[in-house]
């Protein structure tokens, strides 16, 4: 897998990451969602450099200009619910993409420190020969990303796969690197060193879904 860690170079992206990490700023849900969306736009722009392009003649009011435009058939799939702001940021740039949505959540069967990934809701178009973008803001253990891809396999074999995340843990990056093909790509804004005993990224930012949309009702 090709791993593109955008934090290895300084850019405006660092400011957005700093704000979503900041315990005081992140309490503004609208700002948190908007920052995730902006991060998605930056990641999408960087990812676009690896797409396929063709020459198209564009007619202006004063003449004709040859332009290179991407020709990939893109399917953008996000993991509900935390993935929605990231999905929107990517969709701002790939506005003609088809869309897929999937629910993947941690089910703590016996105790808080162990869990399995449960996939329930899934809506997806045909993936055969297309460019699949899997978007999940937090790449902690990597299990959700892999479980999502497994659930999508009946919909066809993509031509190429791009994973997009905001913050990852080294162990999660290693996990997806092991489970996806060599020609897949991971686009990630930054990578932290470790997970805690509950599988959350340290220092991370907390629960992205709760910060974006409010706390879940505990059952």
CATH class wording: Alpha Beta
Q: Which stretches are low in confidence, meaning pLDDT under 50 for 5 or more residues running?
A: none
How many domains?
A: 1
| Cα-to-Cα separation, first versus last residue | 38 Å
Task: Classify the secondary structure makeup into a structural class.
Answer: alpha/beta
How many alpha or pi helices? 6
Overall CATH architecture: 3-Layer(aba) Sandwich
Shape: globular
Q: In what range is the share of β-strand residues?
A: 25-35%
Can you put this structure into words, describing what you see?
By secondary structure, this protein is α/β, with parallel strands linked by helices. It has helices at 13-21, 29-48, 84-93, 143-152, 170-179, 208-213; strands at 2-5, 53-60, 63-70, 74-80, 98-107, 116-123, 131-135, 138-139, 160-169, 185-192, 194-195, 201-202. Strands 1, 4, 5, 6, 7, 8, 9 and 10 form an eight-stranded mixed beta sheet that branches. It has a two-stranded antiparallel sheet with strand order 2-3. β11 and β12 (201-202) form a beta hairpin. The longest helix is centred in the N-terminal third of the chain and has 20 residues, at 29-48. The chain starts with a strand and ends in a 6-residue tail after the last helix.
What is the strand and helix layout of this fold?
Layout: E1 2-5, H1 13-21, H2 29-48, E2 53-60, E3 63-70, E4 74-80, H3 84-93, E5 98-107, E6 116-123, E7 131-135, E8 138-139, H4 143-152, E9 160-169, H5 170-179, E10 185-192, E11 194-195, E12 201-202, H6 208-213
Parallel strand pairs: 1-10, 4-5, 4-7, 7-9, 8-9, 9-10
Antiparallel strand pairs: 2-3, 5-6, 11-12
């Amino acid at each position: 897998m090709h791993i593109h860690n955008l934090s290895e170079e300084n850019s405006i992206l660092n400011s957005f990451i700093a704000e979503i990490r900041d315990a005081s700023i992140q309490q503004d849900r609208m700002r948190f969602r908007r920052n995730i969306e902006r991060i998605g736009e930056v990641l999408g722009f960087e990812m676009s450099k690896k797409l396929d392009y063709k020459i198209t003649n564009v007619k202006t009011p004063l003449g004709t200009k040859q332009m290179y435009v991407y020709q990939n058939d893109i399917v953008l799939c996000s993991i509900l619910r935390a993935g929605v702001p990231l999905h929107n940021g990517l969709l701002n740039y790939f506005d003609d993409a088809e869309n897929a949505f999937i629910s993947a959540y941690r089910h703590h069967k016996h105790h808080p420190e162990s869990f399995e990934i449960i996939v329930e809701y899934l809506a997806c178009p045909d993936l055969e020969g297309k460019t699949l973008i899997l978007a999940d803001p937090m790449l902690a253990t990597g299990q959700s990303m892999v479980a999502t891809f497994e659930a999508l396999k009946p919909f066809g074999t993509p031509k190429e796969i791009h994973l997009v995340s905001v913050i990852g843990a080294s162990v999660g990056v290693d996990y997806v690197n092991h489970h996806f093909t060599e020609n897949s790509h991971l686009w990630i804004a930054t990578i932290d060193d470790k997970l805690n005993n509950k599988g959350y990224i340290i220092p991370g930012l907390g629960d992205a879904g709760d910060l974006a949309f409010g706390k879940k009702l505990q059952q």
